[in-house]
Specification:
By secondary structure, the chain is of the alpha+beta class. It folds into two domains: about 260 residues, D-Maltodextrin-Binding Protein, domain 2 (3-Layer(aba) Sandwich); about 200 residues, 3-Layer(aba) Sandwich (D-Maltodextrin-Binding Protein, domain 2), CATH 3.40.190. The strands form three sheets. Strands 1, 2, 3, 4, 7 and 12 form a six-stranded mixed beta sheet that branches. Strands 8, 9, 10, 11 and 13 form a five-stranded mixed beta sheet that branches. Strands 5-6 form a two-stranded antiparallel ribbon. Helix 3 links the parallel strand 1 and strand 2. Helix 1 runs antiparallel to helix 4 and helix 17 packs antiparallel against helix 18. The longest helix is centred in the first third of the chain and has 17 residues. Pfam families: SBP_bac_1 (PF01547).
Length: about 475
């Protein structure tokens, strides 16, 4: 598809204003289960890729034990090269190189050229390439980027290829987490990972306080009450009942406002609702927990802790975070931890289902080969080979949890949440989402510092975010 001058200009503007996202919270990358590389950059032997973390022999044995899926899309009759662009670390790159090595044995006419870029530079780099009319065949894609890329006609829909692949089994991927990648009934991205958010808690701190662990019966009222009780000490030794303080974020509605019947923005992301009564109630209660009860870290206290995560260092009793945190917690020995459902509110229980994806570019000259690669990479066997912590395919969850040391009961919990109430509803995904957050967050931080009331803060957020939402109009 030849790109006209107007489209190239739009892509150039998008590249210049592309959001820079940190790899944390809901904007995180999924890590694979491997030990850290000892030091320095790794040189990967193309004939026998491996490392201390990923020995070649073990990878070969696992690859041979898996059943790799088929598709009715034929392999190319002669050599073709596809470019695959990912954002990974040195450890994951070894595993990806192993996947490519064994993939090429199954598909000798498909050569793979791999590109890897830092997460915070990735979107800007490839939007710039798109403006110049060149892109890789397959791209990593954060859920918050997809609608922007669809609007700029960068992506090719997956539906025709899924239809040619009876073994694909779209039902194995929770439908509630696919909305980020859809437009006008077409699916443009296939998740590399998917996970809900859970309530994590420090068992040691609960045991010391003589308080029962959180469970499925908990409400937000119970969380607020317990957070106050669990708070003790001062300075660098302080224990917080909960961390961190909720702030404007893409999933603020789904985690903290919808349980009270409120929202940050409406479902169409065209109107600000955070200053309406139900959202105001939720935000006001959190602000009270900070300013009156001192049960969550203030901005100054976070600076005292040198921006380390209070929960991960044993300084907080509870937090709500993504299920991907299980891998990191399972590898630490500083304290015992547990996880359960997020609390209920007056309007019910809500949690986001979020994940990144692989997408096929509209400019790809080898779409069939790109699909064959994507299909195997995102198959149940592909997830099991790569040992992703939170695989989108539910058929890979049990095997991966066992491989990376996640407790059986926690893996079962995640699958239940994804099947029951996790959703993409309320998670910002349209093109203005980064500007919305960047506009609202400094205003809310002034409220956290006690310099502005909750009502004044929410009104100012509504006034200043409303003009930004014009960018979400989809042609």
């Amino acid at each position: 598809m030849e790109m006209n001058r107007r489209r190239m200009l739009a892509l150039a503007v998008a590249a210049a204003t592309a959001p820079v996202l940190s790899a944390c919270a809901d904007t995180r990358q999924q890590k694979q289960a491997a030990a850290p590389v000892k030091s320095g950059a790794q040189l990967i032997d193309p004939n026998r890729p491996g490392s201390d973390a990923w020995p070649f022999e073990a990878a070969e044995q696992l690859d041979n034990s898996l059943t790799w899926p088929k598709t009715n899309v034929p392999d190319p009759a002669s050599k073709v090269t596809i470019t695959v662009a990912m954002t990974t670390d040195a450890v994951t790159e070894v595993r990806n190189a192993q996947f490519d090595f064994f993939f090429k044995k199954r598909h000798p006419n498909i050569e793979i050229k791999r590109e890897s870029s830092p997460f915070d530079q990735f979107l800007t780099k490839y939007m710039t390439q798109a403006a110049g009319g060149t892109l890789p065949d397959v791209l990593y894609n954060h859920y918050s980027w997809t609608q922007n890329l669809i609007s700029n006609q960068v992506l090719h829909p997956m539906d025709e290829y899924i239809a040619k692949t009876p073994e694909f089994d779209l039902d194995d991927i929770p439908q509630s987490g696919l909305g980020y990648f859809k437009r006008d009934g077409k699916l443009y991205g296939l998740p590399t990972d998917m996970a809900p958010k859970l309530l994590f808690y420090n068992k040691d701190l609960f045991d010391k306080a003589g308080i029962d662990y959180p469970d499925e019966s908990w409400t937000f009222d119970k969380l607020f009450e317990t957070a106050k009780k669990m708070t003790s000490g001062s300075g660098a030794e302080k224990i917080y009942g909960f961390s961190p303080m909720p702030t404007p974020a893409p999933d603020l509605s789904a985690v903290f406002l919808m349980p009270f019947g409120g929202r940050f923005l409406d479902a169409a992301e065209s109107k600000v609702l955070i200053n309406e009564p139900k959202a105001r109630e939720a935000m006001g209660r959190w602000l009270d927990l900070l300013l009156k009860d001192k049960a969550v870290p203030s901005l100054a206290e976070l600076q005292l802790l040198e921006k380390v995560d209070p929960f991960k260092t044993g300084h907080a009793a509870m937090l709500i975070n993504g299920a991907w945190l299980m891998l990191e917690l399972s590898k630490q020995t500083a304290f015992k931890w547990g996880a359960t459902h997020v609390p209920k509110g007056p309007a019910g229980r809500f949690t986001p289902a979020v994940g990144s994806a692989l997408v096929m570019t509209a400019s790809s000259k080898n779409k069939d080969a790109a699909w064959i690669y994507m299909h195997e990479f995102l198959s149940s066997s592909g997830y099991k080979f790569r040992q992703i912590t939170a695989p989108a395919r539910q058929s890979a969850w049990d095997a991966n949890a066992k491989a990376v040391g996640i407790p059986d009961e926690t893996a079962k919990l995640v699958k239940e949440v994804l099947a029951d109430y996790a959703s993409d509803d309320g998670v910002l995904r349209l093109p203005a989402n980064k500007k919305v957050v960047d506009t609202a967050k400094p205003i809310w931080e002034r409220a956290m510092l006690g310099k502005i009331s909750v009502d004044d803060a929410l009104k100012e957020i509504a006034d200043k975010v409303t003009p930004v939402l014009a960018e979400n109009k989809i042609a």
